[in-house]
Amino acid sequence: MQDVPGAWSQITKSFISFKVPFAAQRRLPVIDCLCESMDDIEAELNGADNAYTEDESDDGTSVRTITRAPSSLLAPALCPVGKSESGFFKSVRLCLEAIREAMLHQQWEEAAKYMSYYTHALEDTASAKYLMAREIMWRFGCEILHHHPNTKPEAIIDFYERMKNFGVKNFAKISLDHAFHLLLNGQPEEAKRQLSVAESWRYGKQSFTAQSQDLRLISAYRGFLDYIIWRNKRSTGEDADQQGDGSSREMHTYFRQASVTLQEVIKQPGVWDPFVLAYVDMLEFYNDHKGAEKVLKDYAYDKTFPANPNAHVFLFEFLRKHGAPERKLMKVLEMLQMLVSSHKLMLVYCSMLLSSDDRENTEKALQVIMDLLEYTSWKHNVYAWKCLWDVITDLSERCLRDVTEQEWQKRKDLWTPLHFRACHARKDAQIDRDLLQLKTFIAERHFPGRGCEYTNAAYKLKPRKRPR
Predict the structure, then answer these.
(1) Residue 282: CB partners within 8 Å, gap ≥ 6?
(2) What is the pLDDT of residues 94-126, one digit of tens each?
(3) What is the pLDDT of residue 42?
(4) What is the rounded average pLDDT for all residues in the chain?
(5) Closest Cα partner for 442 from 417, 405, 397?
(6) Which of the 8 DSSP states describes residue 119?
(7) What is the rounded CA–CA span in Å between residue 208 and residue 82?
């Protein structure tokens, strides 16, 4: 099997030699060359999935016919079969099928070999499939190179550069993908340089019409990379200040560059979680807590932005970190509960409501914790059931058992089959004995005596012990 330099050299050579449009070349030699190089591919593909059938002809002799079964792993839109498919396009389609199947089975050496043949598809510039072929070369080629065991770093960089110059309609996307690759390999400054080049790139109408959204993302990530560089220099800058060499000036330069870009980015409606956190982190470092809080509030409450539970989580964590009063924290969690009633912070919200010593808040706590327990992921969480027990106990001490009963009547048709069957008691006993005890006493408040299926099963599993 060829290694990456051997197999990929055919791809790069194809890019270098591609200068003259296909219409200006002789068609037959190109097709013949491709078909000859793919004869073994077609034979190999046909050999694996062929279905043999024998029919009897008019003269009584047996005639064997071969029918290739279609691959169940292939998306029809990716490898469509034309009504009048020539040998050239059939070979290209079969080659693409071979590449995709090899990638699905993580056979990266095999995929690289077939990809070297697929470059011939780029010769046909007159076909409507030409644009698709270029994008396939970029996306599949990058995936193969990232997983191939013999890939060298310079081979990936060279491939990105060639693909950028080869397909201008994908220039912005490829540049962004290239920057991600450099960032994952610990080269944030080089990634920023690549994005700066891409941001200033111009190619007629392709600059702003077709790729405006991609160029906007490039600008956003360039600012985010400024933040990453600033963060990397922060610790070294602090040490340098102690030594008196003034290296923090460079760090502050990156702060100004990042803050200007990120401030513009997060003003646009959208989900900008990492960018918002980056901007807030820098503002906190320079003790601009009011500015950071305003950024988080705008991100959470601006109605032009899509509903985003993370925005409320970020705001809550920031306020709690800086010692905000509980009333302010509960207001944030109330909004979060409306968006995601199964969030883990609902346990914190319920505890805050109980500690407020307010009747309305206690009733609200009952609704919050019962909403939480209606999600399967919380069914066997002992802390959630302990919270429910505390709420019911608090309501009983306030002589508000009717509130508990009214809430139960609304939910009993769901809660009985969800939580209080005999099978649930056996499951709870296996998971946590404390959970079994909690649910037993909670069930007794709604099913007095031994009429409850859950409590009957619990009595047989373990003697009762009142929860603390």
Answers:
(1) 227, 230, 255, 258, 259
(2) 888 999 899 999 999 999 988 888 877 777 666
(3) 45
(4) 78
(5) 405
(6) G
(7) 34
> Which DSSP string do the residues of 404-468 spell out, in sequence order?
HHHHHHHHHHHHHHHH-SHHHHHHHHHH-HHHHHHHHHHHHHHS-TT--HHHHHHHHHS------
61 sits in the region (left: phi over 0; alpha: psi -120 to 50; else beta) called beta
**Residue 170 carries which DSSP code?**
G
Surface-to-core class of residue 178, CB atoms within 10 Å of its CB (0-12 exposed, 13-18 middle, 19+ buried): buried
Scanning the structure block, which residue is given the tokens 């780029």?
A: 122
The DSSP result for 219-263, as a single string, is: HHHHHHHHHHHHHHHHHHHHHHHHHT--THHHHHHHHHHHHHHHH
Orientation angle between helical segments 4-17 and 108-118, nearest 10 degrees: 20
Residue 141 near residue 11, CB atoms below 8 Å? yes
- CA distance linking residue 233 with residue 252, whole number of Å: 10
Q: Rg for the chain (alpha carbons), in Å? A: 32
pTM for this model (two decimals): 0.74
Closest CA to 335 of 356, 312, 361, 317: 312
Phi, psi of 227, deg, nearest 5: -65, -45
Q: What is the dihedral of CA 273, 274, 278, 283, to 10 degrees?
A: 0
Give backbone dihedrals phi and psi of 461, rounded to 5 degrees, phi first.
-90, -40
Distances from the Cα of 359 to the Cα of 397, 398, 414, 442, angstroms: 11, 8, 26, 21
